[in-house]
Specification:
Elements: H1 3-12, H2 16-38, E1 45-48, H3 58-72, H4 90-101, H5 107-124, H6 132-141, E2 145-148, H7 154-158
Parallel strand pairs: 1-2
Helix pairs in contact: 1-2, 3-5, 4-5
């Protein structure tokens, strides 16, 4: 995505959750530009996404919003929440959670709690995809510049063992 477009959208949007998301994405774009600029010209850069490329996490993300968030706010999980995932952003799902649950907090508060729950999942439950460590090590030994570019928040990623394989841990 063109990072300039995100700057324009950030100025237009008034929704706090979307603004929070866009600020994260702008930050990621700036970091990618910095990393690529710093890479040696004779090395090839390999950019990876994190979720479901490096780790098996989709079921944990779904459980966190379908079950764990409801429990955190003292509400029995609502089955309809499971039906609305298709193609939606985390910000949209946070708003859907608020609409279904009736909880009186902001979408940003829901996102922060959701990310807190996921941090615990990443540190204790979510596993690397089988063979990924060996593959990343092979690429690193070949002199490739390995970069992680992800919408997953940085503290969540740092809760895994993957950072030791990357050429930069700034994302």
């Amino acid at each position: 995505m063109n990072c300039g477009i995100l700057d324009i959208l950030k100025n237009i949007l008034r929704n706090k959750a979307l603004k929070f998301y866009l600020e994260e994405q702008i930050d990621v774009c700036d970091k990618i530009k910095y990393i690529i600029k710093g890479a040696e010209m004779n090395k090839k850069i390999v950019i990876f996404d994190f979720d479901n490329t490096i780790v098996n996490s989709i079921d944990h993300w779904r459980k966190a919003i379908n079950v764990d968030l409801f429990k955190f706010y003292g509400i029995r999980p609502i089955p309809e929440m499971k039906k609305i995932h298709g193609g939606k952003s985390n910000q949209e799902l946070a708003q859907d959670f608020l609409n279904l649950s009736g909880v009186k907090v902001s979408a940003v508060d829901v996102l922060k709690k959701w990310y807190d729950l996921m941090f615990l999942n990443y540190t204790k439950k979510i596993k690397l995809i089988k063979g990924i460590k060996e593959y990343l090590l092979m690429l690193k030994l070949q002199g490739k510049f390995l970069v992680l570019a992800s919408a997953t928040v940085s503290p969540t990623v740092s809760g895994t063992e993957i950072l030791s394989f990357l050429s930069s841990s700034s994302l």
